[in-house]
Amino acid sequence: MAAYATTRHVNSPAGVTDYQTTLFRRLTWEGTVPLEIRVDSKELPANSNRGLECYYTQAPRVSYLPLLVPQIRKFLMDLVFDEAASKDLKEEDWWFEHENGTLLKWHWPIGLLYDNHTIATSLQPSTSAPVFAPMRLILHLASPPMDKLLLQPSAEACKQAFMGQLKEADFIRWGSTKRMTSLRKADQDGIWEGIKEHNFDDYWRVASKVTPSTGTGSRAMSPPPGNSSSHISPPSADAQGPSDREGAHNVRSVPARIYLPDGPVLQDLVPPLLEDDSPLVGTPNTLEHFLRAHIPLLFPEPTAPSTPTLSRVVQPTPRKIELAYALIQGILAPLESEMAWLGTCMAGADGWVNVCIGVKSNKT
């Protein structure tokens, strides 16, 4: 992972996605998480088979809980529910909560829900469950708490929330939503169908029109004072030709959010290149820079170790203090990863780089 996140990419012709970009996009797309979904025992219809009310699945990370309902219903109708009693059940009334009673955010990607669950579980003092155990959910068949859900957790409401996230990501990247709003309705519907059917090619056939590429040049920047170099290029974008205005390093900002354990969600503008207030102006903005700027208590500056006084000056190597880690798409992300690269290759289907923060144990 680290080798690709910081490697130099060969320029590609405009409109052509290089192999490595497609590889990581597909790996992100094909990621799955284990779920155990159990129907609330108090809501099972009469004459249901109570020995089979638990449904197991490997759910796509890029999918959403409301999109699992049809396959769950088929399983329950075939094996669990009494046919007569199940006729009164309405899918639009179904909703999910965690086994600990926490209401799940149905408009979050399933992979994001799982990563937050994994981190929250790791913080519990007496955790005996394996790290990759299924996330256990309770399925309720009636009385959704609309005051907390805000909207009915249906597939249509999920689609509207998803399209809203795509448009917001589009605006953050380019300063407008022209790329999204100029798509034909067939394309806008097609990008959602790619999510529903979990079809990589159908999704990226449209998504490539609004997502930056990784293969070509960098935004023109002035060299920092005292630097003799006449041009600064990020290591992942060796400019050998004209600047590509659609490239990852030419967006205005990378759509990214930080999810703290049991805490708030942080969002700010994330320029792909460090700007004037940094001594490294013009170089790629990395995950380390991003996290250090927003949560410095968890990602502090390296400290120089104390050394005895010697007859000759010895420059000590700064020592990094590792208090926390970043989880992106279930992967421990190297802090040297470039934000522009993450935004192009590791973003979710909604266009956002979701960075989940875990706190390292005192035992390690």
TrEMBL record:
Q: What sequence ranges are listed for the domain Autophagy protein ATG5 alpha-helical bundle region?
A: 156-212
Gene Ontology terms for molecular function: Atg8-family ligase activity
- List UniProt keywords, sorted A-Z: Autophagy, Isopeptide bond, Membrane, Transport, Ubl conjugation
Known partners and oligomeric status: Conjugated with ATG12.
Judging by the UniProt lineage, the source's domain of life is Eukaryota
Q: Which GO terms describe its cellular component?
A: Atg12-Atg5-Atg16 complex; autophagosome; mitochondria-associated endoplasmic reticulum membrane contact site; phagophore; phagophore assembly site membrane
Q: Which region ranges are annotated with the description Disordered? A: 211-249
Q: How does it sit in the membrane?
A: Peripheral membrane protein
One short Pfam family name for this protein?
Answer: ATG5_HBR
One GO biological process from the UniProt record? cellular response to nitrogen starvation
Q: What does this protein do?
A: Involved in cytoplasm to vacuole transport (Cvt) and autophagic vesicle formation.
Which family would the database say this protein is a member of? Answer: Belongs to the ATG5 family.
Write the lineage as a comma-separated list. Answer: Eukaryota, Fungi, Dikarya, Basidiomycota, Agaricomycotina
Identification of the protein by name? Autophagy protein 5
Could you tell me where this protein is found in the cell?
Preautophagosomal structure membrane
Task: List each copy of the Autophagy protein ATG5 UblA domain by range.
Answer: 29-124
Q: Domain named Autophagy protein ATG5 UblB: which ranges?
A: 254-357
